[in-house]
Amino acid sequence: MPTEQTRWVDLATVVPILDAAQRLEVVALKSFCEQYIASIAQPSNCLTLATQAMMFKMEPLVEAMVQTTQGCLPEVAQSPGFLTCSFPLLAKVISINRPHHLEEQLFRATWAWLLAVPSHQDHLNDV
């Protein structure tokens, strides 16, 4: 249930608000957004957050969200953000999960990503 402090921020708005807070140098709002992201980030939503962070060129947040996927590829691959994530983000997720999962699991996740969006097939030779 949203609190008074969080009723205006959610998964879809927190990264753009964080970007604005950074640009406008609103330290308290920036800190709040960072804490909020830390409290909600999980394998099922981290790629949605990472995709937004990539749009705003927030590489540290992207890396933090990629770290959240470590060892959780099956759950991450079932998340809404997985099938629509960019190729660079997919590559990071597969790379960080390589030591934790069987090659078959990595292949299945990558194959699902390739088939999900027609433009992903442009990366067939890259994967």
UniProtKB/TrEMBL annotation:
<dbReference type="Pfam" id="PF07707">
    <property type="entry name" value="BACK"/>
</dbReference>
<protein>
    <recommendedName>
        <fullName>BACK domain-containing protein</fullName>
    </recommendedName>
</protein>
<dbReference type="InterPro" id="IPR011705">
    <property type="entry name" value="BACK"/>
</dbReference>
<feature type="domain" description="BACK">
    <location>
        <begin position="46"/>
        <end position="126"/>
    </location>
</feature>
<keyword id="KW-0880">Kelch repeat</keyword>
<keyword id="KW-0677">Repeat</keyword>
